[in-house]
Amino acid sequence: MVLLLARRVIQTVLILLGVAAITFLLLYALPADPARMIAGRSATAQTVANIRHELGLDKPLAAQFWAYLQGIVTGDLGRSYAQKTDVGTLIAARLPATLVLMAAGIFIEVLLGITFGIVAAIRRGGAVDRIVMMASFVGVSAPQFVAALLLLYLFAVTLGWFPMSGFGTFAHVVLPATTLGILGAGWYARMVRSAMIEVLNQDYVRTARAKGLSSARIVLRHALPNALLPIIAMIGIDIGQFMGGVVVVEAVYGWPGIGQLAWQAIQQVDIPIIMGVTLVSALAIVLGNLLADIVTPLIDPRIRAR
Amino acid sequence: MLKRWLRQTTIAVTLAVTPVCAFAQDAPAQGGDIVITYKDDIATLDPAIGYDWVNWSMIKSLYSRLMDYKPGTPELVPSLAETFEVSPDGLTYTFKLRKGVKFSNGRDVVASDVKYSIERAVNPKTQGPGAGFFGAIKGFDALSGGTSETLEGIEVPDDATVVFHLSRPDATFLHVLAINFASVVPKEAVKAAAGDFGKSPVGSGTFVLKEWVIGQRLVFERNPAYFVKDMPHIDRFTVEVGQEPLVALLRLQKGEVDIAGDGIPPAKFLEIRNAPDGADMIVDGEQLHTGYVTLNTKVKPFDDLKVRQAVNMAINKERITRILNGRATPANQVLPPLMPGYDKSYTGYGYDVAKAKALLAEAGLADGFETILYSTNTDPQPRIAQAIQQDLAAIGVKAEVRALAQSNVIAAGGTEGEAPMIWSGGMAWIADFPDPSNFYGPILGCAGAVPGGWNWSWYCNPDLDKRAIAADSMSDPAKASERTAAWEKIFTDIMADAPWIPVTNERRVVAKSPRMGGEDNIYIDPTRVINYDAIFVKP
Known about the structure:
The structure holds two protein chains of two kinds.
Chain A: H1 2-29, H2 34-39, H3 45-54, H4 61-73, H5 87-122, H6 127-141, H7 144-158, H8 170-200, H9 203-211, H10 215-227, H11 229-243, H12 247-252, H13 258-267, H14 271-299, H15 301-305
Helix pairs in contact in A: 1-14, 5-6, 5-8, 5-11, 5-14, 6-8, 7-8, 8-10, 11-14, 13-14
Chain B: H1 2-17, E1 33-37, H2 53-62, E2 67-69, E3 76-78, E4 81-86, E5 92-97, H3 111-122, H4 140-144, E6 154-158, E7 161-165, H5 173-176, H6 187-193, E8 207-213, E9 217-222, E10 236-240, H7 245-254, E11 259-260, H8 266-274, H9 278-281, E12 282-286, E13 289-295, H10 305-314, H11 317-323, E14 328-330, H12 353-362, E15 370-376, H13 381-393, E16 398-404, H14 406-413, E17 421-423, E18 429-430, H15 441-444, H16 462-472, H17 480-497, E19 500-512, E20 516-517, E21 536-537
Parallel strand pairs in B: 1-10, 1-11, 15-16, 15-17
Antiparallel strand pairs in B: 2-3, 4-5, 5-7, 6-7, 8-9, 9-10, 11-19, 12-19, 13-17, 13-18, 13-19, 14-19, 20-21
Helix pairs in contact in B: 10-12, 16-17
């Protein structure tokens, strides 16, 4: 385990370094000149040159990248061009909302996914199975924007059960998390279904059945734990994706998460924020996978033994 | 003469400030707590840096400046200044400050604060976009070039007096002192904020910032010590950010939101307008905006005046205003109608396909030609570019539409010989202050026809440049109308050279709840968009 961790830490650093380098190069290859964007249309050439100098944009690319890396090591992600504030502060301010939505979204995804996946596997080939699979197909392919607006219109505007937009109370998180949960549950349902079908055909399940165990006990106690492994890996990936921001859902529900920040920064060519968000989400993806790697052997003794 | 003008305007101000709405049906009531939404975060509230149309109006209300505008109009009035005098040569401006004005940290506003604030806006370390506006003040080059830390042209003989010495007459100087970059800030608060003054602003305006939750909301509260009595009217406004315009509108219809700052998405416009209280909810106002197509005078065949005139006659501007849901009026000249110097009698190049074809034939292009039309890629700009493309096709001109991200279009425009035509939609000129000169220098003067500049027609007429300088030297307020006439003529003469196709004057649309009171022109104030000082909640 210690060895795994050490290897993963080294991998993480290398991945982050690679991500930083690629993002940095891509962003600076953009034809948009940040100094000119900040300076606005009334600026004289002198003003633009001054701003470029103050931002250090007149230094060679390698020197800029080196300065950036030095900053990261000391926890300094730089200052936003447009907002003139520490990028770290801006990202930190949005972390709570991002984490809440991530946890709630994944909870609903997994809950719905496992429930419907099991039901479909048990009723394999039947009407229920077909309906579940059809629904999950619709779920994974529905545009977030449409789904989010539909739920918003139905439950917030027409019925008035939940607030339309914002962050702060439990009621605020229900609609955005449900939107993400419904759309993402399809993946989980399909995965649980196929894993369950495989497990349910195994000898030991047949033995359990022959022993006269109730089918609920067979499914929940004997089959499900064995079907959960891929789900854990998938949750690890989802953690990374949710941390990178769920731009559309955040936009519709006015959710103050990292996705909103990233989207604004992209429109304003606010390179330090784009860099910061990219690094944070890369880190989250790596950590999410690491988490899955750590949890899997705890659940499955076979992997632990290997 | 000057003194009398001053006294008159000062009286006018005292009269004007409160009763703007006295003639309206509802008298402005004191009190109220309103909610305003925007899609994007508020970038910064630092007056030396903020330069977008959302933070512009908030900065206006957080701080005060020597000069300001009468709410809802482009009319200059003294604000932090009680009186001022302009020397006959137009090179010295002397301001007497109002007494007893306090910053929200409790300290008195003194003359050295004015000097500090403008020096800060010019100082390259501030990275402010507005430095160039103060170019006429003596010592500007030294400070902006980094060889000095102060502006020698600003003198502070005592706490109540500021004297500006200019290196050249600048008739727009009073406007310059009214723009946000001239807002007065206390040095100690800037220092204490350690580079984050934009997040913890201290000013002497109508409102103070009470709370800022990043990514969520900003709460502004009425400054009870504001130096004009009965201003502002509302007690508090909360700006909620991250709000999708469509959702903001739904919330407005439910009464959760009072002003949807981003306006009305095109898909919802007709529905709202036709709703029973729709008329009460839509504020539709003129702005100092002109949308245009630049014709690059350095790219063939637009180097030929006849070709430029021909395409000017080929565009069906009425149809383009329909694409904009009627939220625009056809333009025939450079200046927008609200701008002093707008020529009401000028008719420009009418829509006349036959005449356009004849002009092309005269230019030896009877069979038309191929060209490229640049446009930004956000709706509705590509659709407008396509409408222009179709109009051009009718006279035999095949234009390829290149819809790109805004920064790429700006880059192409500022590259010599690159973009033959650019539709300015989404990037068009909106005046920084209501003076015609603001529509010349950067976008039609020789100074802007440089790499990285905004004169995308690359039109440079040295004779007009001279006349522009002459007009801007008439700083005596008594000569104001003569100066406006000079500018009017300059812009008419520009149109004779047809470097632009003026297409539309767009109107801004703000959606507000029926409980909000006040005339439309304080929701779309020509110098600040939403005028938080003047809006009020109906009793």
